[in-house]
Amino acid sequence: MSFGRIGAGLAVLATATGLLLSGCATTGVNKGDINLISVDQEIQMGRDFAAQIAKTYPLLKDEGINAYFQRLGEQIAKQSDWPDLQYHFQVVNTADVNAFAIPGGWVYIHRGLIERADNLSEVACVVGHEIGHVVARHGTELMTKQYGIALVTQLILGQNPALWEKIAAQLFTTAGVLHYSRKHELEADRLGIRYAYRAGYDPNGMVTFFEKLQALQKHEPSLIEVWFSTHPPTSERIKQAEKLIAELPAKPGLKKDEPSFHAIQKKLKALPKAKTLQEIQKEKEAKEGK
Ligand SMILES: [Zn+2]
User: pTM of this prediction?
Assistant: First the structure.
């Protein structure tokens, strides 16, 4: 984050809105980074953003499946550095092998990722990674950087619903907003491995999932287009993950899989085939005559 922008932002914030400044995250993570948005504001922002996503995205309407991932997510989030936040986990009904988080505890897992995972530990590690983005408050940090504090403040105050719509729509495309930096991604990986491990899941799921992504990149790149537009090279992440996992104390009984996960996969595979976000976007553009 550029300090010049923060300086200007501070002035705008102090003079124009009079909002209270919160120095930095209170989650214990990213203590050195500056985040001008308070935790309460971030939670409010997450709610507004989630409402936009519900309008923009084809969310899966299956209570049983969503409840399964809500349980899994909460179990992992409880082991995070922000355990008392109310988290929401939802499945997006598209073929993309991807997941994303928005500020305030909202995590979205694309159906393609669940269908393509070899075992539960892979999904648990990805969910841990997304919880890592939430806990480290990467979303608000990034939005402040991208839009400037003045616009972000308007968002928080509910003064700019059109911008919310724009942001939600941009998330959809490869020009999406939440382009986390390499530093963010590596940090979310570190946190995700730790949280999944603490929750009792085999952290090697992170490595095998990354290897799967590398294979998909070669053979079915359209499924991971969104992923690779928003995530840094995988080889570096594998290296970091392997190193971290080797340093973790041995823990007997770490869970790699469970039959109920495969029952969920079976249920998903029986549904009408999902499209990718890009296919949906293209169809929408064709309809609108763009
Ligand atoms: Zn990420």
Answer: 0.85
